[in-house]
Specification:
Length: 353
């Protein structure tokens, strides 16, 4: 669908900028940087958007086919073929950088447990020293892929309202009972609430087969109306409160993101679709997964091993990292994708035995 690759690229680029900011200014979740860079503090919300977009993209074809998919085993095999090879390559790279160049975890360099837990994509269930702080969401996405066939079945049998209500109520109950944890280190109590986020995208995909009256609804205005209260809450409460309450913030912003995608699916606004369809946007989106996988070790090397020789801490380091680290991350991700992602993307699934 036109525009989706461009959105993936922009979301990945925001995550890179978030990590440039995060590593340049100490004290997170407080904002020790300039106030005008405060919009870069919320990298998790870009991951939330990725997951809404993932649910939306995966559900487009089933939505056109009565909410059926072409076989569970085939779906899971194709997802593994698409996601795991570049992830494992990025894992090797990240472990090497974290062990020999710059440490990624406060708890020490990667060890054998790291390799096993992250290699099996179990970092959302078991704690381990992280080799790459961005990897926590890969395990979440893998879990959502496993649940996707069940979610389609529930959408087909029970309808959108029952599916969304049931999933959300279960997760709200869990949120009221949960304690605190660290997503990057694998003890991630925040991950389960991303199920309704994914479901929101899945439900929004139904707009492609909806009646014309539904398709002509002002989806972007509805999205803006839903997002304004969430943004106002973030602005009033501040970054520290927001970060400590992401469980609820994620649930608050997901409907707006889903309605935004519904608007994109119906071809509005045309100017945004034209922008997202430009060659640079589409190109960035093509290797956005690789950019997400490999950017953090590169940014860490620039911030901690290169920048101190040339600039002072704080804003000069941030500017240096954006000028040097951002292009280095993008170029490295493109090269990485050509070797470890695109061959598996072009060949949609492994050859049957």
């Amino acid at each position: 669908m036109p525009g989706l690759d461009g959105l993936r690229g922009l979301a990945a680029l925001y995550v890179v900028l978030f990590h440039c900011w995060l590593l340049s200014f100490p004290g997170f979740p407080g904002n020790s940087g300039p106030f005008w860079l405060g919009w870069l503090m919320y990298g998790r919300l870009a991951v939330v958007f990725f997951l809404v977009l993932s649910g939306f993209s995966l559900a487009l074809s089933p939505a056109r086919n009565g909410w059926h998919q072409g076989g569970v085993a085939r779906f899971l095999r194709r997802r593994a073929w698409r996601i795991l090879p570049p992830y494992w390559a990025a894992l090797v790279l990240s472990v090497a950088v974290a062990h020999f160049v710059v440490r990624a975890s406060h708890h020490g360099p990667p060890n054998h447990r790291t390799v096993v837990v992250y290699g099996l994509v179990l970092q959302d269930m078991f704690t381990a020293r992280t080799p790459n702080g961005a990897f926590w969401s890969i395990a979440v996405e893998a879990e959502l892929y496993l649940l996707f066939p069940v979610l389609l079945l529930l959408r087909r049998r029970l309808g959108a309202t029952v599916l969304v209500s049931g999933v959300t109520l279960l997760l709200v109950a869990r949120g009221l009972l949960a304690g605190n944890a660290s997503p990057a280190e694998g003890d991630n109590w925040l991950a389960p609430n991303l199920l309704p986020v994914f479901v929101a995208g899945l439900i929004a995909a139904g707009v492609v087969v909806a009646r014309e009256r539904v398709r002509r609804m002002p989806w972007l205005w509805l999205a803006a109306s839903a997002m304004v209260p969430a943004l106002a809450l973030i602005a009033v409460k501040g970054p520290a409160w927001t970060v400590h309450h992401y469980f609820w913030v994620d649930l608050a912003v997901a409907p707006a993101m889903a309605m935004f995608l519904a608007g994109i699916a119906t071809g509005r606004p045309a100017f945004l679709l034209r922008l997202l369809a430009t060659r640079p946007m589409r190109g960035l989106g093509e290797f956005s997964y690789s950019l997400y996988l490999v950017h953090l070790p590169i940014v860490m090397i620039v911030v901690r091993k290169i920048a101190p020789y040339y600039v002072s801490a704080g804003l000069p380091t941030f500017c240096f990292t954006v000028v040097v680290g951002l292009p280095a991350a993008v170029l490295s991700a493109w090269l990485f994708s050509e070797i470890f992602e695109m061959p598996f993307k072009r060949k949609r699934e492994p050859r049957a035995a």
